[in-house]
Amino acid sequence: MECIFCAIVEGKIPAAKVYENEQVFAFMDIAPANPGHLLIIPKQHYRNIFDMPAEVGTKIMEAAVPLATAIRKALNPDGLNLFQSNEAAGFQTVFHFHLHLIPRWEGDPLRLPWKPSEGDIKEISNIATKIQEAL
Ligand code: 5GP
Ligand code: ZN
Q1: pTM score above 0.85
Q2: C-alpha 42 chain-centroid distance
Q3: With contact defined as beta carbons under 8 Å apart, do 6 and 16 qualify?
Q4: Ligand 1 close to Cβ of residue 91 (< 6 A)
Q5: Containing H/E element for 118?
Q6: 59: CATH
Q7: Residue 30's closest CA among 18, 19, 47, 16?
Q8: Residue range 11-59, pLDDT digits in tens
């Protein structure tokens, strides 16, 4: 089965397009978490952040900054979240990289998906070292 986001880029499936350039495509999410929920994707298919070149990530962010400003100008939200899911364990349901831009209003129904609680500083710094060594 063809990737649904590739089909959107190719115009085979309709979508409310907001912006496109040579590398990226931005369109409204069909099931918005809040009004103005927008997705930015690379036109080329990458499953998620684990197989996407860093330069493509740069292109995504280069589009995200002005689009966030445009959302603020158009909809006057109190805030905005960038959200990005990788693999099923990380909430990913469409396996073509996408960055969510979700406008936020005070008192809206969205909640942080984790409960912040202080971690063990030794464990945190051990993990930091582990990641640093893997870089
Ligand atoms: P994920 O859960 O992978 O982070 O996000 C996938 C997003 O794609 C969801 O927010 C979902 O509503 C959106 N989505 C799924 N299918 C379509 C579609 O056909 N068109 C549009 N515009 N959005 C879609
Ligand atoms: Zn795709």
Answers
A1: yes
A2: 11
A3: no
A4: yes
A5: none
A6: 3.30.428.10
A7: 16
A8: 999 999 999 999 999 999 999 999 999 999 999 999 999 999 999 999 9
